[in-house]
TrEMBL record, chain A:
Gene3D superfamilies assigned: Periplasmic binding protein-like II (3.40.190.10)
Summary of subunit composition and partner proteins: The complex is composed of two ATP-binding proteins (PstB), two transmembrane proteins (PstC and PstA) and a solute-binding protein (PstS).
Species this chain originates from: Chromohalobacter beijerinckii
Cross-referenced NCBIfam families: 3a0107s03, PRK10918.1
Occurrences of domain PBP (ranges): 21-304
Keyword Lipid metabolism included in the entry's annotation: no
Task of the protein: Part of the ABC transporter complex PstSACB involved in phosphate import.
Keyword annotations of the record: Phosphate transport, Signal, Transport
Pfam families to which the protein is assigned, alphabetical: PBP_like_2 (PF12849)
Protein's UniProt name: Phosphate-binding protein PstS
Signal peptide coordinates: 1-23
Stated family: Belongs to the PstS family.
Automatic annotation (TrEMBL), chain B:
Entry-linked Pfam families: ABC_tran (PF00005)
Segments of this protein annotated with the region Disordered: 1-46
Keyword match Endoplasmic reticulum: no
Protein known as: Phosphate ABC transporter ATP-binding protein PstB
MF terms (GO), sorted A to Z: ATP binding
Biased composition (Polar residues): 1-19
Domain (ABC transporter): residue spans on this chain: 51-293
CDD domains: ABC_PstB_phosphate_transporter
Automatic annotation (TrEMBL), chain C:
Family statement: Belongs to the binding-protein-dependent transport system permease family. CysTW subfamily.
Keywords assigned: Cell inner membrane, Cell membrane, Membrane, Phosphate transport, Transmembrane, Transmembrane helix, Transport
Protein name stated in the entry: Phosphate transport system permease protein
Sequence intervals crossing the membrane: 42-63, 91-117, 129-147, 167-188, 284-307
Main location: membrane
Highest classification ranks of the organism: Bacteria, Pseudomonadati, Pseudomonadota, Gammaproteobacteria, Oceanospirillales
Subcellular location field: Cell inner membrane; Cell membrane
Length: 346, 298, 315
């Protein structure tokens, strides 16, 4: 409730601010929290370079979708892509802007840090409440060298609807059919066991305080806080470490050109080095815009970000989109039209 | 304190002071009987000492409400405390069962002895004291319980009865003693508040005597009642003194004259005069008491 | 002369001999008074209207859920928005269990504090303690939530690792709620206990009753409706509490018949999901809101009724 009222207040303040700012050529957007750090870094750099500011409200993917359908912002942002028919329903288009990964983290005293190995099947069974102790045979088989304690497993998950939830459940549904049937993928799902905590920080804290807990957070958060993470077995059967490189490896094999409306979730990708829970965060815009000047400003910003934002993204532990994907995105912008049907880009 | 030696001793002292008082005449401002003794004792009755108060002073914070009170109260008598409003008579009454303990700003100096024991002594338990000193208040105030339970509650709490039959007997006896039994015997389980004002007050008396105290304190027990109920209560007081010592505060001088064996007159926190009731009303020794009794103020 | 008689006959304000000016002023004042009366009436009605409007809008916006699967909604054992399975049972269960735990803990403690404050507390401590209780009642719930997640949950996990493997859960939420409603129930209990006339209290003490006997046998029976009212108001607060509960309840959306394990409450579930919800999920959450509204409304109406009874009797 507090969150809603806060964001309402924020929206109000920003709306007021927006009236003044439009004169100074400001861009407005709202949505996902996951890419917020990198968007705001880009916005700062862009302000320095071009003198155009960005008002981005990190209110969550759902809020972003609501605001863009209501046309109160020029662009929306969502961690989970919309399906083709959802896009068409609201006359929207979307494209991937930045990538990141989700990392399972754990608190299991007696094991070496960052050493525990799991595969997707087992991870799904843990989260389905079917594997309840760390010395379960399924885990022991994957870790023959580790002396596993008989500690109970407490799965920790994100309590509120989030893009991180979507990526994680999407992955588990890919690799475990029973999980797909009983729990399924989504921004908010019903977990049969364990504890729900708020946001990355809440999950990390709950894991840190609970012996035997396992959780999942965004890679940037896990890395910056040096959490004990799990090595996952990917589609090719290799155990990989979460890192920018393993995310890039997953992205490199993605076939964006055959994904209508750029609907593609990069979980369980092929490739020996691919991290299996990788995903992109998406930008949403109307295909037919009412204010072509504002739309053009926003597209110029994203164009600039694809070209110049790589370093900032890497520094913040995000993964920039590969150049060929950026080009495909730029091509798709040709579909955006002004009120008279005129093309806006380039 | 009921041995005859002491009694004799006091009686001797009495006679000497009484004669002195007589010499000084009835209107002397300062009768000087022995401390706490009435100016005149009732003749031909063997009266034992029940409550002995010496040099009792009481303050509400800074305000002194009682000033150096000394009084002897005799067993199986009715003693009335009279005086104008605010003279300290109710405050004094509440010293006898330490009811003033409930008010934390009160400080007390002096001695209150009940059957030879100092009630304010460090080792004295006020709950034990109050079991021996019952109290009846201005306004009838039955507990929010049935008539039966009003009477039975405290005895049961004190483990005076264990069997239901004993309890029934105790309730009946208390209600009979309070002269209420015939009126309520068919509706013992109706709420106490369903009775009339006079009946409620007699229920409160029954409640007080059910725990078999030695002393019953009554704080203007009839001030909220009609004349008929008042007369019933007055009769009751007369009967009850066979078993109990009664100290009553009253506004009504006729009532004091009717029911009390002894009367003490209070004024502005001091006890001005203490005497056998007949003497007090016929022949008051102090000007202030006379003025009050004859209705010059009050 | 003719005009004047007519005026006299037609005006309520015209007594014989009244001047035109007098009548004008009287008329004006009457008009102002009527306008004032009407506007206060309008404000009062607006509150009723608002209540009705909230109820109606909740019903309308949750109609999709209620009309399509009212039974599933109330009995479904999970709230899986991604599969469009909206079972309110875990949330209703969690709401009731946490609130009942809270009341079970808070009632004896609150009554104890209230008894101490009214019967035994030295005069100099009475005001400071009373004010402290009132201040506690004013602390924003989010602070209790932070305290719960920072201190209480780890503490419970440390002391009873088997019962509280993760620290959070229904019992933890119930404890936090108990601490939140204790000042509330205490303040009301103290106030109603003070309505017992001193004479009633004294006559019980005068019979040689101990404090406990006086409280149990005389004070409680005298004010039991008021104290019940206080408890139910506390219960109402516990039922609707959101932030503090969301932090420590565990937010598990499956129905588990557990006391110490994780679960969710109606308010926590709405707070977690509403910002991101649309379509069927939004409608289901609104239906959940309607359920909470009805539960709380019933509880508060009961409390009001009980408090009215004691007020009537006191008068």
């Amino acid at each position: 409730m507090l969150k809603t009222s806060c964001s309402a207040l924020l929206a109000g303040v920003l709306a007021l601010h927006g009236i003044q700012a439009s004169a100074q050529e400001t861009m407005t957007g709202a949505g996902a929290t996951f890419p917020y750090p990198v968007y705001s870094q880009w916005a700062d750099d862009y302000q320095d370079a071009k003198g155009i500011g960005l008002n981005y409200q990190a209110i969550g993917s759902g809020g972003g979708i609501k605001q863009i359908t209501a046309k109160t912002v020029t662009f929306g942002a969502s961690d989970a892509p919309l399906k083709k028919d959802e896009l068409d329903e609201h006359g929207l288009m979307q494209w991937p802007m930045i990538m990141g990964g989700v990392v399972p983290v754990l608190n299991l005293p007696g094991t070496e840090k960052n050493s525990l190995k799991l595969d997707g099947e087992t991870l799904a069974d843990i989260y389905a409440g079917k594997i309840t102790h760390w010395d379960d045979a399924a885990i022991a088989d994957l870790n023959p060298d580790v002396d596993l304690p008989d500690t109970a497993i407490t799965p920790v998950y994100r309590a509120e609807g989030s893009g991180t939830n979507f990526l994680f459940t999407h992955y588990l549904s890919q690799v475990n059919d029973e999980f797909a049937d009983t729990i399924g993928e989504g921004k908010s799902v019903a977990w049969p066991a364990g504890v729900g905590a708020k946001a990355n920080a809440g999950v990390a804290k709950q894991v840190a305080e609970t012996e035997g807990a396992i959780g999942y957070v965004e890679f940037a958060y896990a890395k910056q806080n040096d959490l004990d993470h799990i090595r996952l077995r990917n589609h090719d059967g290799e155990y990989v470490e979460p890192s920018s490189d393993s995310f890039k490896a997953a992205a490199a094999n993605a076939d964006w050109s055959n994904a209508p409306g750029f609907y593609l979730v990069l979980t369980d990708q092929v490739g020996a080095d691919s991290w299996p829970i990788t995903g992109a965060s998406f930008i949403l815009m109307h295909k037919q815009v009412e204010d072509p000047a504002a739309a053009k400003r926003v597209l110029e910003f994203f164009d600039w970000a694809y070209a110049n934002g790589g370093d900032a993204a890497n520094e913040l532990d995000y993964v920039p989109m590969p150049e060929n994907v950026a080009d495909q995105v730029r091509d798709s912008w040709g579909d955006i039209e002004g009120p008279q049907g005129e093309s806006i880009w380039p | 304190m009921n041995d005859t030696t002491l009694q004799n001793f006091q009686t001797q002292q009495d006679s000497s002071t009484a004669s002195e008082g007589a010499v000084r005449g009835p209107y002397s401002e300062a009768p000087t009987p022995d401390k706490g003794q009435p100016v005149t004792r009732n003749e031909s009755v063997e009266e034992n000492l029940s409550v002995r108060v010496r040099d009792l002073s009481l303050w509400y914070g800074e305000h002194q409400a009682l000033d150096d009170i000394s009084i002897d109260i005799f067993a199986n008598t009715v003693t009335a405390l009279i005086g104008p409003s605010g003279c300290g008579k109710s405050t004094f009454l509440r010293c006898l069962n330490r009811m003033n303990d409930l008010i934390s700003s009160v400080s007390i100096k002096g001695l209150v002895e009940m059957d030879g024991r100092d009630v304010n002594a460090r080792g004295m338990d006020e709950v034990a004291l109050r079991r021996r000193v019952g109290m009846v208040f201005q306004k009838p105030n039955p507990f929010p319980k049935s008539i039966y339970e009003n009477v039975a509650y405290a005895p049961r709490m004190h483990d005076m009865v264990s069997r239901k039959a004993d309890q029934d007997e105790l309730v009946e006896r208390a209600l009979r003693d309070a002269g209420l039994w015939n009126e309520v015997k068919d509706k013992l389980y109706e709420p106490g508040t369903s009775l009339s004002g006079g009946q409620q007050q007699r229920l409160c008396i029954a409640r007080a005597i059910a725990v078999r105290p030695d002393v019953i304190l009554m704080d203007e027990p009839t001030s909220a009642l009609d004349p008929i109920s008042t007369a019933t209560i007055e009769d009751l007081m007369d009967k009850l003194k066979q078993d109990f010592t009664i100290v009553t505060v009253t506004h009504n001088m006729q009532q004091a004259a009717r029911v009390a064996d002894y009367t003490a007159f209070f004024h502005l926190g001091e006890m001005i005069e203490y005497n056998a009731t007949k003497q007090m009303f016929a022949n008051p020794h102090t000007k202030k008491a006379e003025d009050y009794i004859t209705g010059r103020y009050g | 002369m003719h005009v004047s008689t007519k005026r006299l006959a037609s005006s309520r304000f015209a007594f014989p001999g009244a001047s035109d000016k007098e009548i004008r002023i009287l008329k004006r004042n009457a008009l102002i008074d009527r306008a004032f009366e009407r506007s206060t009436q309008a404000f009062a009605l607006a509150v009723l209207l608002l209540l009705g409007a909230i109820l109606v809008s909740l019903c309308v916006s949750s109609w999709d859920t209620l009309s399509a699967h009212a039974v599933d909604f109330l009995t479904g054992d999970r709230w899986a928005a991604n599969m469009e399975m909206f079972g309110a049972l875990p949330a209703i269960y969690g709401t009731l269990v946490t609130s009942l735990i809270a009341v079970a803990i808070a009632v004896p403690v609150s009554f104890g504090i209230a008894i101490f404050l009214t019967e035994k507390c030295p005069e100099i401590l009475r005001r400071p303690l009373g004010i402290t209780v009132e201040l506690l009642a004013g602390i924003p719930s989010i602070i209790y939530g932070m305290w719960g997640v920072e201190m209480l949950a780890p503490f419970l996990n440390h002391i009873f690792p088997d019962l509280f493997p993760a620290g959070s859960g229904l019992a933890t939420a119930g404890l936090v709620l108990a601490i939140m409603i204790i000042p509330f129930i205490t303040a009301i209990s103290r106030d109603v206990m003070l309505t017992v006339p001193p004479i009633t209290r004294e006559s019980a003490y005068g019979l040689g009753c101990t404090t406990w006997e006086v409280v149990r046998g005389v004070i409680f029976p005298t004010v039991r409706h008021g104290m019940m009212g206080g408890v139910v108001l506390g219960l109402g607060r516990a039922l609707g509490e959101t932030m503090a509960v969301t932090f420590v309840i565990g937010n598990n959306l499956f129905f588990h018949p557990t006391i110490t394990g994780q679960g969710t409450s109606i308010a926590a579930l709405i707070a977690n999901q509403f910002p991101e919800a649309d379509g069927a999920q939004r409608s289901a959450l609104l239906a959940l809101g309607l359920v909470l509204f009805l539960i709380t409304f019933a509880v508060l109406a009961t409390a009001r009724y009980m408090l009215n009874r004691i007020e009537r009797r006191a008068a």
